[in-house]
Amino acid sequence: MRLMLQVYEEYAKDHDMLFNADKSIISRPRGVASGGNRNRDICFSISGNVIENVESWPHLGHVITNSASDKLDVLSRHGSFIGQVNNVICWFSKLDCCMKTRLLRVYCFSFYGRELWDLSNLHVQSLCVAGRQTLRRIWKLPYNCHTAILVSV
Known about the structure:
The chain has helices at 2-14, 38-41, 71-91, 97-107, 122-139, 147-151; strands spanning 25-27, 45-46, 49-50, 52-54, 56-59, 62-65.
């Protein structure tokens, strides 16, 4: 890594460029323990500035972690889903149930990248529960309504 950064610095010097270390991040590789001082000793720099070492970072609307866990990404999507649902219900409260359901499909149920999630993750299950609760709320169904009815909606 240090050799690669050195090549970048030489290229920048030859072409009168500067690299911004504040816009760069380094993630600890999988398998390296996060505890202890081993990770703290690893320090990379470019153009004399230290590059930040992170465990997770946002990229194109997703939260990527060095442990390849979907937890933070699913939790982030869960939070934004709840916010979008509340907005639709607030702004379109006077519409009938069918129209609100259409709006939910268009504006709230767009989970791009969900194909990559581990479906056995408990946080994915909680997102599914939130979706069913939303449909119950829109259709004014009782809490104990069977979920088979909600799937067909």
